[in-house]
Specification:
The structure holds two protein chains of two kinds.
Chain A (H helix, E strand, L loop, with lengths): L1 H7 L3 H20 L6 H26 L7 H18 L5 H25 L4 H20 L4 E2 L5 H8 L1 E2 L3 E2 H19 L1 H11 L1 H6 L4 H27 L1 E2 L8 H10 L11 H21 L3 H38 L1
Helix pairs in contact in A: 2-13, 3-8, 3-9, 3-11, 3-12, 3-13, 4-5, 4-6, 4-11, 5-6, 5-11, 7-11, 8-9, 12-13, 12-14, 13-14
Chain B lengths: L1 H27 L9 E5 L6 H17 L2 E4 L7 H13 L4 E4 L8 H9 L3 E5 L10 E4 L3 H16 L3 E7 L5 H17 L3 E8 L4 H14 L5 E4 L2 H12 L8 E4 L3 H9 L6 E3 L2 H17 L9 E5 L6 E4 L1 E2 L4 E4 L4 E3 L10
The chains are: A mainly alpha, B alpha/beta.
Chain lengths: 333, 345
């Protein structure tokens, strides 16, 4: 019996997060039953896809004790650029968009990676700089021109509307795919494990000869590619874009990752957690809108959630430290 | 010595003649029967479809008046870029400027200098301070917009039932005034249509979409969503057209026909309203012509000729606006599946 219960108990942070998510969805559903209908569930997944994809890209970076604040500007850049290029090339389909998007994002990622890993500049400052540079670039090249559904490839917009089993949008299916691949990579590949080591103790990682430059550089390139793909997702979802697209949303991504248990101090967290974190934030946002709470309270509640998450994180960390310590004392004795 | 004095005297005489000639062109020429109009149309930015549509109206009026017309679109949306265009136009001898201003005050010195040289300035869409122009052509009255919103929403809801509003921010002045007029119109003309909620999408696609979802979830019986914002209306229409509410909840509001064409025609039954932008350019040029060639007064209360093609109106009344004398273009045009293809902006 005891072992049965312990088997049911959630494993690690992701398990408890999953339960919190289910409880939140349940409560929202009780207050507003329409939230749990096919449309409601599909909306939740559709509206989480962009932030979840960015959180998956950001997770390895935060795990390495870095941060990438340029992602929202990169989303804006790719979304605008793809709309522009497909407006000028009417024979473009979703295929070209899915290739060009990540490529543009990777250019920003390479720039970030070289500055952070190559010149060893603090990522907070570097990516704050590229946040402004990339957004500035969007303002300049867009020249105040915006695009709407008419000018976008119909195959891309159709794909954005595609839903499997009535609830699972194509975009979120890709998010789950990206989440599983990165989670496997981070857990079972040496390069992935290195990230945790680097984040836990960058100095020691250097001293024992881990490839700090290569890992850090590639993590930024990966985050850039994810941001580029998120730009494509943005178009698929909203079918409108101007130079302010996704402005100021970078901290929502950091919040999703942190709420999902990716420790801001580095060294722990998973992409599965980051995805659940994004879902949790969106459930609460969507739930509050469905209840009719106004915008100010929505952002205040978001902030509260973030602080609670960090508090939970600290408490859990301290608890596990104590358990480990007790275990070690027991072993010595 | 003699020779020298002679040349100076000759120069003086020449100078007097030259000045006289200049004065003659400046003061006498306008008094002659008809001045050939040379019109420079300076929009906020050259590449925006909205202003290119306005220019079609400018061209139409120019053809009627046999005037010369040029579209002088700045390449960036700044007052400085417009000042450059203004100065260049005056130097190349344009005598009418049709301007949608990027800044209320920054253009005024350049425009004042132009007017001193006898150039007639008519602003449209966005005004400058009074000293910079003869008259302003305003989009539509707030009441006209509110009425169009109410009528369109009532039309979509079948003249009874619940509707909701998706606005920008709670303190957006324009939106609040339009919503007020909309409510008044609903109360007087469509008493069975009830506004059950107002949500705020902050003029961002993300928030506007989430709020649209929230409205439909919280008020399952709403028949129409009114979004008096060009971002909000597109976000709401995009969401509805891809959800199971398509055909049950209809979207209307203020929007550009090109932005909304996809949703107006895809069977989700959306509508949009806006002033007729092409007519904007047409009326501005015709009024400029009345001022230059018909010595028309543009004081408040006067009737002013606005051309045969002005929706069959011919004349408009000058009223007192926020800055000074203006005429109103309105009423708003409602774009539906039947007429949306006639508009390209």
């Amino acid at each position: 019996m005891n072992s049965f219960i312990s088997r049911l108990k959630p494993r690690g942070r992701e398990g408890s997060l999953g339960i919190i998510l289910l409880v939140t969805v349940g409560i929202t559903g009780l207050i507003n039953p329409r939230f749990l209908t096919g449309d409601g569930t599909r909306d939740l997944f559709t509206s989480t896809a962009v932030v979840a994809l960015l959180a998956i890209g950001m997770a390895p970076i935060i795990i390495m004790r870095h941060i990438d604040l340029s992602v929202a500007s990169t989303v804006g850049l790719t979304a605008w650029f793809i709309a522009d290029i497909s407006a000028k090339n009417p024979d473009f389909t979703w295929v070209q968009c899915f290739i060009i998007g990540p490529l543009i994002g990777m250019i920003v990622g390479v720039l970030n990676g070289l500055l952070v890993a190559g010149l060893r500049l603090p990522s907070l400052v570097v990516t704050l700089g590229t946040l402004y540079i990339v957004r500035g670039a969007v303002y300049v090249i867009s020249n105040s021109v915006d695009y709407n559904a008419q000018e976008m490839p119909p195959s891309l917009l159709d794909l954005g509307q595609k839903v499997f089993f009535g609830v699972m949008p194509f975009t979120f299916l890709l998010v789950i795919f990206a989440m599983l691949i990165t989670a496997w990579f981070m857990k079972y590949r040496k390069a992935g494990r290195d990230c945790y080591a680097i984040g836990s103790n960058p100095h020691a990682a250097d001293l024992v000869g881990l490839k700090v430059f290569r890992r850090t550089f590639l993590a930024f390139v990966f985050s850039g590619a994810m941001a580029g793909l998120a730009g494509v997702f943005y178009l698929m979802r909203f079918a409108q874009v101007d130079s302010t697209a996704f402005y100021g949303q970078e901290l929502a991504v950091v919040a999703a990752a942190v709420i999902g248990g990716v420790t801001i101090a580095g060294g722990s967290g998973t992409t599965i957690g980051a995805t659940i974190g994004a879902l949790l934030v969106q459930t609460i946002q969507g739930g509050l809108a469905a209840i009719g709470v106004d915008a100010f309270w929505k952002s205040a509640i978001n902030g509260l959630l973030l602080i609670v998450a960090i508090y939970a994180d600290r408490t859990l960390a301290r608890k596990s430290e104590r358990t480990l310590l007790a275990q070690r004392i027991k072993e010595r004795a | 010595m003699e020779r020298k004095r002679g040349t100076t005297l000759k120069k003086k005489i020449l100078a007097v003649i030259a000045i006289g000639a200049l004065m003659a062109t400046a003061f006498v020429a306008p008094a002659s029967a008809k001045t050939k109009l040379k019109i420079a149309h300076i929009p906020k930015l050259g590449t925006i479809g909205y202003f290119q549509a306005a220019d079609k109206g400018v061209q139409r009026a120019c053809k009627e008046l046999k005037a010369t017309c040029a579209y002088k679109g700045p390449t960036e949306i700044t007052a400085a870029a417009q000042v450059k265009e203004i100065n260049a136009a005056v130097q190349s001898g344009y005598n009418v400027l049709i301007i949608a201003a990027n800044d209320k005050d920054a253009l005024v010195p350049a425009l004042k200098a132009a007017r001193k040289k006898g150039v007639t300035v008519v602003t449209y869409d966005s005004d400058v301070a009074k000293a910079g122009r003869s008259i302003f052509v305003n989009q539509a009255s707030s009441e006209g917009i509110g009425n169009a919103l109410a009528d369109s929403a009532a039309d979509l809801a079948g003249d009874s039932g619940e509707i909701a509003v998706l606005s920008t921010t709670p303190d957006a002045t324009n939106q609040n005034v339009w919503i007020d007029y909309m409510n008044k119109r609903l109360a007087s003309a469509h008493p069975n249509v009830k506004v059950v909620a107002t949500a705020y999408g902050l003029d961002k696609p993300e928030e506007s979409t989430t709020e649209t979802q929230g409205l439909i979830q919280k008020y399952p019986n709403i028949k129409a969503i009114v979004a008096p914002t060009s971002v909000g209306i597109v976000a709401a229409a995009k969401y509805v057209s891809g959800s199971s509410s398509k055909g049950k909840v209809f979207v209307t509001g203020l929007g550009l026909p090109n932005d909304m064409k996809t949703y107006i025609k895809d069977g989700s039954g959306a509508q949009a309203s806006l002033w007729d932008v092409e007519n904007f350019g047409y009326v501005a040029v015709q009024i400029a012509n009345s001022i230059v060639n018909k010595k028309q007064s543009v004081k408040v209360g006067k009737k002013i000729k606005s051309g045969k093609g002005d929706h069959g109106l011919k004349k408009r009344v000058v009223i007192k606006g926020a800055v000074g004398n203006e005429v109103i273009l309105g009423p708003a045009t409602v774009f539906t599946a039947d007429n949306v293809d006639n508009y390209d902006f």
